[in-house]
Write a structure and sequence with these properties.
Distance between the termini: 30 Å
CATH topology: Jelly Rolls
Number of domains: 1
Largest sheet: 5 strands, mixed
Helix content: 10-25%
Number of strands: 14
Number of helices: 3
Strand content: 25-35%
Order of helices and strands: EEEEHEEHHEEEEEEEE
Radius of gyration: 18 Å
CATH class: Mainly Beta
Strand order of the largest sheet: 1-3-11-8-13
CATH architecture: Sandwich
Length: 281
């Protein structure tokens, strides 16, 4: 199993919910997923997802102890100046600088580059459906891998990348609800110290003009899961998606899930995630 600097959190001492998460089955072929209509005769994906029932601990009582470098995720209070995240101009002008400030304060990094953001509104459509917003991702995944993390830095930073990669760099997502609290389909977050690196399964993500790589996660009963219920508009979750430093948490698997305690009539989840690169001196 993955080594750690401290013992994993003890979810058995916290309130728990039982829910299904989608895990990736191991395969003999290179795993892939097309984000658009694939060539004729080629399946959209060869990922096989199997649901497993897991217990997910309410991390609210220990939120102040969560650490990006230990568990791989953290809860941060933050009041945004953005009034409408669906307004691209506001999100770029205000949301991106806010995300940089949040990650810089949480990590102590010398420089933060915000390179992307994704808005989601749950409608029940398949993700990436035409004319529908992006949907919550209902399978356990990590946005980057040991290969794609450095490549993303090269893609974004160009000629400066190799000098920056000679020092520590990390990709951190800033995830927050918009319009209302995230009671519907919150995020389950895997304690990085309970994840065996051998269970992280790379999958090629094929776009029209480039390809990337993400991790799926094979199920193991030793994995520990947490969530922050009722995440408010003045809160964000930070998620470690890659870190060049092998002595800290490098990957925090996560997934949307159907929380059985969500009250009937709760509005569908709306959220945004900002993707950032933290560069350290």
């Amino acid at each position: 199993m993955a080594t750690s600097l401290a013992a994993p959190l003890a979810p058995e001492k916290l309130e728990m919910v039982s829910a299904s998460l989608g895990f990736t089955e191991r395969g003999t072929e290179k795993l892939y997923f097309y984000t658009f209509e694939p060539p004729e005769g080629v399946p959209q994906t060869n990922l096989a997802i199997r649901e497993h029932r897991v217990t997910i601990a309410n991390a609210r009582p220990i939120a102040g102890q969560l650490s990006l470098d230990l568990e791989g995720f953290a809860l941060v209070p933050h009041r945004t100046a953005v009034r409408d995240f669906w307004d691209e101009a506001q999100t770029l002008a205000l949301g991106h600088p806010e995300a940089a400030e949040i990650v810089k304060a949480a990590t102590g990094a010398a420089r933060i580059v915000v390179f992307d953001h994704t808005l989601r509104r749950r409608t029940g459509d398949p993700d990436r459906s035409p004319h529908a917003p992006r949907q919550p991702v209902a399978r356990v995944h990590v946005d980057q891998t040991v290969r794609s993390g450095p490549q993303r830095v090269r893609d974004i930073m160009g000629d400066k990348a190799e000098a920056l990669l000679s020092r520590r760099a990390a990709i951190v997502n800033v995830w927050r609800p918009i319009r209302h609290a995230a009671q519907d389909h919150p995020l389950a977050l895997g304690d990085a110290r309970s994840i065996d690196p051998a269970d992280l399964l790379p999958s090629e993500q094929i776009f029209r003009h480039r390809s990337g790589e993400t991790y799926g996660l094979a199920y193991h009963p030793a994995q520990r899961w947490h969530y922050i219920p009722d995440l408010g508009l003045d809160e964000c979750i930070l998620i470690k998606c890659w870190d060049s430093d092998e002595a800290v948490a490098r990957f925090a698997p996560h997934s949307a899930f159907d929380d059985p305690t969500t009250p009937p009539g709760t509005p569908p989840r709306e959220s945004i995630e900002f993707r950032t690169i933290a560069f350290f001196d």
